[in-house]
Amino acid sequence: MGEEKKLGGVWPTIKPFVNGGASGMLATCVIQPVDMVKVRIQLGQGSAVSVTKNMIREEGFGALYKGLSAGLLRQATYTTARLGTFRILTNKAIAANDGKPLPLYQKALCGLTAGAIGASVGSPADLALIRMQADATLPLAQRRNYTNAFQALYRISADEGVLALWKGAGPTVVRAMALNMGMLASYDQSVEFCKDSLGFGELSTVVGASAVSGFFAAACSLPFDYVKTQIQKMQPDANGKLPYTGSLDCAMKTLKSGGPFKFYTGFPVYCIRIAPHVMVNFTLCYDMDIPEPNSEGGKVDWVVGFSRAGKLLIFFMERGFQQLDQKLILFHMRLLFMV
């Protein structure tokens, strides 16, 4: 009886983190090609159409999924911490508010806090992701040729020092705070508006709220995302000098050379990237009904494999589950056949 109470107290706490990480990884498998094109646009490779055509023609279709392992690792760290923290914070705030819906500013504060925590945890994986995605744009002699996220992290720490894993962490944290303030707060607010004021059904609510959330998240975070990308991919020149001394220097030089709209390079692609990610992420995050381990020590083991085509296969081995309900079976199918 005591063991059951202990499990019952732990699982509700960690479940938002498990749901958040799993849904973020699945959403990344869907959105990775769009994110790849977005990074190339920010690096000055051309429009979305030309970038996509050139990548497929010169590097093959698999290039659209370059850096997928780093993207999944980023979601396993960043999104796990971000969505889990946001749900814990909002639940506590609602309890302190006597169960009433939170005002927008409180949701925004929860989003800011969750974004900062998630970005601090996920910054190394984000650095590996940007470098892997940008590698093909560099001259052959300057390419790093990371084979996967873990090799990238190892080589960065070995060649540049452990603290280099947090290179660009400043704009990464600020970007995450801005993105989460725009995304999480506007999503919850939009869901309430669509359901209560417009009377939308479940599907219409998710689609509408995701579109609104994606726009505000992109508008709030893209300038910081642009600076972050430039800082993380930069390399020293022949004299060993870096193009920027820091985030502020990068922002000022960008503003001077291209004006304020330079920070919004690739805005349509960025919106297209974020809105479906929000849709897939939140749909899976809130629909998943991962069962609690039973009192006899049953647990879920996850074995994750990545194929070169970019498919994510998550194989479950359940031990000790008392029953498999319909939602769990549906969840299994989503995980096994998501591409």
TrEMBL record:
Ranges of the Solcar repeats in the UniProt entry: 11-92, 102-193, 201-291
Subcellular location: Mitochondrion inner membrane
Annotated membrane topology: Multi-pass membrane protein
Main location: mitochondrion
Key words of the record: Membrane, Mitochondrion, Mitochondrion inner membrane, Repeat, Transmembrane, Transmembrane helix, Transport
Short name of any one Pfam family annotated for the protein: Mito_carr
Keyword field contains Transmembrane: yes
Gene Ontology CC annotations of this record: mitochondrial inner membrane
Top-level taxon of the source organism: Eukaryota
Keyword Transport belongs to the record: yes
PANTHER family on file: MITOCHONDRIAL DICARBOXYLATE CARRIER-RELATED
Family note: Belongs to the mitochondrial carrier (TC 2.A.29) family.
Protein name: Mitochondrial dicarboxylate/tricarboxylate transporter DTC
Organism this protein belongs to: Papaver somniferum (Opium poppy)
